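sry for the spam today, last one i promise. struct tokens for design, 189 residues
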């Protein structure tokens, strides 16, 4: 059942709530994974994703179809994440705590790699996650959407509701700031 999003939205609006369930299944993993990277916590990402889907269902009649459904959904999730951060602000005490909170572990467990490869990959991933969490929210979000979620500039502009030129400049500045933070971390290690 590969119905287009527009058909599922129309069916949902006509009272077929199971059609919205198909949209949830279609986008829940993608949204959750993006939120884990932007929020830095698997638990927070789960809460925000749930909240975003509830709000999307409640506001579905306002979806105009000028952008992709996922972009619209992410915009809602982004607002939910900002509100969630305000309510539950907490700092991460250490890299180990951040890794535990996010529930993310290195994926490279190949038997064919060098013995120290897994450790190096883990350290690099940890550094990137740590540096990413130190970026301002507007930079972290836009960088995750581009580099991790794979959205193009137009989709990002739709998702965060800003002009494409702003997206380009924020991505550029975010990359520079991330690079700078990583260089400082590498020098201190």
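last one done:
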């Amino acid at each position: 059942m590969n119905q287009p999003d527009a058909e599922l939205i129309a069916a949902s609006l006509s009272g077929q709530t199971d059609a919205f369930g198909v949209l949830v299944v279609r986008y829940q993993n993608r949204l959750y994974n993006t939120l884990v990277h932007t929020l830095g916590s698997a638990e927070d990402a789960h809460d925000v994703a749930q909240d975003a889907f509830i709000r999307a269902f409640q506001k579905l009649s306002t979806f105009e179809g000028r952008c992709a459904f996922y972009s619209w959904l992410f915009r809602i999730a982004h607002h939910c994440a900002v509100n969630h951060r305000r309510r539950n602000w907490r700092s991460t005490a250490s890299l180990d705590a951040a890794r535990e909170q996010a529930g993310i572990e290195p994926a490279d467990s190949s038997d064919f790699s060098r013995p120290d490869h897994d450790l190096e990959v883990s350290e690099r991933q940890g550094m990137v996650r740590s540096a990413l969490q130190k970026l301002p929210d507007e930079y972290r979000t836009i960088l995750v959407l581009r580099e991790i979620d794979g959205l193009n500039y137009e989709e990002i502009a739709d998702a965060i509701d800003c002009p494409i030129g702003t997206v380009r400049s924020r991505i550029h500045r975010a990359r520079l700031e991330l690079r700078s933070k990583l260089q400082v971390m590498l020098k201190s290690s």
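The longest helix spans residues 164-188. ok im logging off now
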